[in-house]
Write a structure and sequence with these properties.
The chain has a five-stranded parallel beta sheet with strand order 4-3-7-8-9, sandwiched between helices. Strand 1 and strand 2 form a beta hairpin. It has a single domain, classed as Rossmann fold (3-Layer(aba) Sandwich), CATH 3.40.50.2020. It has five helices and nine strands; from the N terminus they run ββααβαββββαβαβ. It is an alpha/beta fold. The structure holds adenosine monophosphate. The site of adenosine monophosphate (AMP) has 17 residues, from strand 2, strand 7 and helix 4.
Length: 176
């Protein structure tokens, strides 16, 4: 399989000092690497009985929508506050400093639907767990979450597992 990790660019001290930003734009712009990424995720999830993919704004839209299309599933966006036009519910979550929130349309998921959650990267897992909470509030069943990148030092995968979600990531990077 293609070495997806080698297509991801690291930008030091973005968006603030001490953060190593793992930039997937260098992966997305390469047709073969983008395709290999979606194919690897699709292969991992091909045998599950899933109804929809939920992707987290913004890079989770790119990966999640391409994967949903490949798997023959619908796509649902989880967005930053105030961006969705229809009736929505909101879930706040803690950041290192302060709070943020995510929204989902009330009619995006029907009770009992099996959902695959997708984002580009998992760090602490706070963002993914907020999305899990939204999906569950709508009656969705979310047992799987997929990522291109895991930052294992931040423990996000364990947080997902502790909340009944089986995580999967295509590659890992040390540090923050
Ligand atoms: P967390 O909630 O801590 O798991 O952070 C995950 C979210 O923040 C994802 O939506 C990522 O896109 C973004 N993120 C966190 N850390 C990084 C990083 N080092 N490089 C790129 N994106 C990151």
């Amino acid at each position: 399989m293609m070495d997806i990790r080698s297509y991801i660019r690291t930008i030091a001290d973005y968006p603030k000092a001490g953060i190593q930003f793992r930039d997937i734009t260098t992966l997305l712009k390469d047709a073969a690497a983008f395709n290999a990424t979606i194919d690897a995720l699709a292969l991992h999830y091909a045998d599950l009985a899933l109804d929809k993919v939920v992707g987290i704004e913004a890079r989770g839209f790119v990966i999640g929508a391409a994967l949903a299309s490949k798997l023959g599933l619908g796509f649902v966006p989880v967005r930053k506050p105030g961006k969705l036009p229809g009736a929505a519910i909101s879930q706040s979550y803690a950041l290192e400093y302060g709070e943020d929130a995510l929204d989902i349309h009330l009619d995006a998921i029907a009770a009992g639907e099996h959902i695959l959650l997708i984002d580009d990267l998992i760090a602490t897992g706070g963002t993914a767990l907020a999305a899990v909470a939204l999906i569950r509030q709508l009656g969705g069943v979310v047992e799987h979450a997929g990522f291109v990148i895991d930052l294992p030092d931040l423990g996000g995968l364990q947080h997902l597992q502790a909340n009944g979600v089986q995580p999967f990531a295509l590659c890992q990077f040390e540090g923050h």
